[in-house]
Amino acid sequence: MSTRILVPTDGSDSATAALKHVLDVADDREATVHLLNVADTNQPSLTRLGDDIVDVLEGEGNDIVSDAAAMAEDRGVSVVTTVVQGDPREVIAEHATADEFDLVAMGAHGRRGLGEYVLGSVTDHVVNRSAVPVLTVRAADEVSPTFPYTDILVPTDGSDHATAALELASTVAERHGAKLHLLSVVDELPEVIDAGSADLPEQLEENVQAVLDDAATTATRAGVTDVTTTIAAGSVSREVTAYADEEGVNLIVMGTHGHTGLDRHLLGSFTERVIRTSPVPVLTTQAHDDA
Predict the structure, then answer these.
(1) What pTM was computed for the model?
(2) Measured between alpha carbons, how far is 120 from 100 in angstroms, rounded to an integer?
(3) What are the tens digits of pLDDT across the range 33-77?
(4) How far apart are CA 4 and CA 11, in angstroms?
(5) CA distance 143 to 282
(6) CA angle, 236 as apex, 164 and 266 as ends, to 5°?
(7) What angle do CA 68, 74, 75 make, to 5 degrees?
(8) What sign results for the dihedral spanned by CA atoms 95, 100, 101, 102?
(9) Residue 267: is its pLDDT beyond 60?
């Protein structure tokens, strides 16, 4: 079965960065890219052109997907284009179903309508509700996506959503022969511990290492041959992005908490922060009930 990739685009720099990167992925997987532009019905868009009433946003959307389709066709990637009206957050999330797509690729920021930059909030919404994995890419000077992936980072705390991310990352790492970096960040230390200078308590370090060892075993069983584990203390988002930068990681895979996700022990509560600051693309997924 061929791979199907949904790429919502609003023509912004981040959306274009995401498209450029995902075209590498699509070319590797011989995938079909489905370009989607949502003409936001929350914004006034009708205007008179001569004797006709036209929808400015829908017309702009057609131009945006046409330009994006030309980029795909230049790469020899199969492409389909769609422009629809609605609330971008809801429409994209509704499109992102496992029956229709295998992956969603989005810019971390973007714009609505004729200039209001809000796609970041749209991306957050889709990341937490998509039934399929979401690949996000930032447009920034310090972000230079590379493909194929050689070093993949998975922050893990042993939660169900982190385990789902681990399983996805293991599949990607095995496919590309990539090194898998497993990182556990301790962000809540006893008050007597100075996170900046003191070592972790021995029992705490043993517990965290046990989580990493279990994760390494899972990855090895999935066929990953190069796995490394690291424990860090501090802010989760800061430690994750710093590790990615220092170790030459070119993809971060994280679990996200889904619809509510108020459990403070789940890494999902930090995922949005990583997406906004990551020096590399971030692939997110969440555990789903089988029922």
Answers:
(1) 0.86
(2) 24
(3) 999 999 876 554 444 444 443 456 777 888 999 999 999 999 999
(4) 21
(5) 11
(6) 40
(7) 100
(8) positive
(9) no
